[in-house]
């Protein structure tokens, strides 16, 4: 069934993105991009169900999730730029100054 | 569905008007900011007036029956009004502190009241969240407005690191949370109203399928970040330590209160889906209450230490949430009110204390009682309200919460309250002993010259007057709220409508019949 | 739109490989400059199957917002912070990384199992909100829903976008010191 194919694909995308968040040891930008990938996978899920049910609400929900993803990425980028300006590096290992 | 004309929405305007008050005020603040150069002091009074007006609306509309608005589907009741009022109260208490801070540090951040109002609006929004679409949008609504309000306060290394952790990890948890919602939308057949979702699951006989069982797990895994339940709590101490003291408490406390309100809605929806749904929140509540008190003992920074009691307090609030009966919700609401007053009061007092000592290390404050007894009294009073001395709030709030847990059959949670009270009393006595007796601390600076940046206000009572003014109601509330707890709890319990629980019971019976077939 | 099953599968495979490879590139490439366009290609390619799923509006919105507004600023911000003269060597995995990766990989079979063994034929739409036959009709229906029934969930994202706009500018701009009224003459030392 096509729904199964699309859902499998979005699950693969989501798990890859989770791996990008948890296993990222290089750069904070990868974290931001992985969050966008996760939200893309969620969008795909909503659209698949919307098509399966021939329903409008799924597309509406996907639109809202997309707006939230855009806002999140704008804020995340601004915060990362500020971090780079203060710290001079975007490496993940330097983002652990406060511990405990 | 028939289309509704604009005219039919007007009679239901009273349902959503509290949310309509912050919107014009935030736009006015933006317009003032964009048309005036330099600092504009008008934004602070506006950001204070708006929540005051907002809090009067639900108080004036105090009612017994919930109002249903078919135009937007919002079904609100007094329980939601109390949550909303607590968010607005939070915003009122924040205003003097942040005004003081931004004047002292000369940062041109007039946008800060705008972010605070937007975050307040976002926190009020779950009140209206009765369908899946609104519930899926609501968490982001408040948290995305809190990221800039924590990020715009300072340009140093530590605040930016704290904001990075808060925003990126918050984004991850929101994505995981939202990933559970398609499985509540699709398999039940495209219905977005909660009862429709549950009916759809029953009718399509999918209540035992793995897809429906995994959705609550994902949703819970995503939502526990916002109230900073263990093990997702690490962002809270970093935000406390990184941000300037007067403004630090706004993002975490608002996030916790808004998340509690939203979790109420979500758990109402999820509870019929699986009989063991409360196992995970139980474990997290126990871990939060215990670890929140234990890790605080090891802290060396006063601000970082203050981050851990709220983590344990959210564990108590979760107990009331899991209990799921009217007493549980009442205990949750009461404890949320305590939480707001106590945390803001503690931070305000620590702000005054730190401005004189110039440090936030606990060790450096040793012996300050000998130099200025009144000043040393402030942090003494600050963390102990929830510690357990009558007539403070602690000995009334915690037993009530444990009693609700026992009533609901959550026996592992019951002994946690007394145990953690003992730990927190021990810890606070250590700090009091350090302040009162020991030597080796820093010499206290004379007031008003601590960092050489004096605001140019002409009144002789500056710079601490606004913080002191803001601290006074908090001191009164956090130390005497325990005495007034009974009327608060009774009002909350009597006004939570039983129809939520009646409907849930009907669905549970359907599930039971289906499972036994 | 009806197409033979094999053509449909071929479309799916070709349009899914783009995002899959791109997302692998995002999470595993070392130099920051390379994941950025991979992320853009993911967003662009993922909207390819949408028209065949009768989700034309979603495809258009995906391209415009996600690929255009989200993924285009990311390379612009990534360029100044990349350091090509110090190629960052890939750090060796620790034990924790290994455990996390094993957990993530082991989460894959149960999820796929769940998808494969769910009885999708039992799902039927309860509320008939027909998506509409033509693209303009579906866009009209989405517009009418979002301005009548779904108005409360529709307004907050608009405020969120406004706050994100103001917030991004406020956070990332250079610090300004307010007012020249705090002149040295007014700084009092007791």
From TrEMBL, chain A:
The keyword tRNA-binding does not apply. It is found in: Membrane. The keyword Lipid biosynthesis does not apply. GO terms for molecular function: oxidoreductase activity, acting on NAD(P)H. The chain crosses the membrane at residues 6-23, 30-53, 59-81. One of its GO terms (biological process) is ATP synthesis coupled electron transport. Keywords: Membrane, Mitochondrion, NAD, Translocase, Transmembrane, Transmembrane helix, Transport. GO terms for cellular component: membrane. It is a multi-pass membrane protein. InterPro entries: NADH_UbQ_OxRdtase_chain4L/K, NUOK/Mnh_C1-like. HAMAP family: NDH1_NuoK. NCBIfam families: PRK05715.1-2, PRK05715.1-3, PRK05715.1-5. Belongs to the complex I subunit 4L family. This is NADH-ubiquinone oxidoreductase chain 4L. It comes from Selaginella moellendorffii (Spikemoss). The gene is nad4L.
Automatic annotation (TrEMBL), chain B:
Coiled coil: none annotated. One of its GO terms (cellular component) is respiratory chain complex I. PANTHER family: NADH DEHYDROGENASE (PTHR22773). The keyword Thylakoid applies. It comes from the Eukaryota. Pfam families: Ndh2_N (PF19530), Proton_antipo_M (PF00361). This is NADH dehydrogenase subunit 2. Its main location: membrane. One of its GO terms (biological process) is proton transmembrane transport. Residues 9-100 form the NAD(P)H-quinone oxidoreductase subunit 2 N-terminal domain. It is found in: Membrane. The gene is ndhB. Residues 129-424 form the NADH:quinone oxidoreductase/Mrp antiporter transmembrane domain. The chain crosses the membrane at residues 277-298, 305-323, 329-352. It is a multi-pass membrane protein.
UniProtKB/TrEMBL annotation, chain C:
GO terms for molecular function: NADH dehydrogenase (ubiquinone) activity; quinone binding. It is found in: Mitochondrion membrane; Plastid, Chloroplast thylakoid membrane. The keyword Cytoplasm does not apply. GO terms for cellular component: chloroplast thylakoid membrane; mitochondrial membrane. Its EC number is 7.1.1.2. Keywords: Chloroplast, Electron transport, Membrane, Mitochondrion, NAD, NADP, Plastid, Plastoquinone, Quinone, Respiratory chain, Thylakoid, Translocase, Transmembrane, Transmembrane helix, Transport, Ubiquinone. It catalyses: a ubiquinone + NADH + 5 H(+)(in) = a ubiquinol + NAD(+) + 4 H(+)(out); a plastoquinone + NADH + (n+1) H(+)(in) = a plastoquinol + NAD(+) + n H(+)(out); a plastoquinone + NADPH + (n+1) H(+)(in) = a plastoquinol + NADP(+) + n H(+)(out). It is a multi-pass membrane protein. NDH is composed of at least 16 different subunits, 5 of which are encoded in the nucleus. Belongs to the complex I subunit 6 family. NDH shuttles electrons from NAD(P)H:plastoquinone, via FMN and iron-sulfur (Fe-S) centers, to quinones in the photosynthetic chain and possibly in a chloroplast respiratory chain. The immediate electron acceptor for the enzyme in this species is believed to be plastoquinone. Couples the redox reaction to proton translocation, and thus conserves the redox energy in a proton gradient. This is NADH-ubiquinone oxidoreductase chain 6. The gene is ndhG.
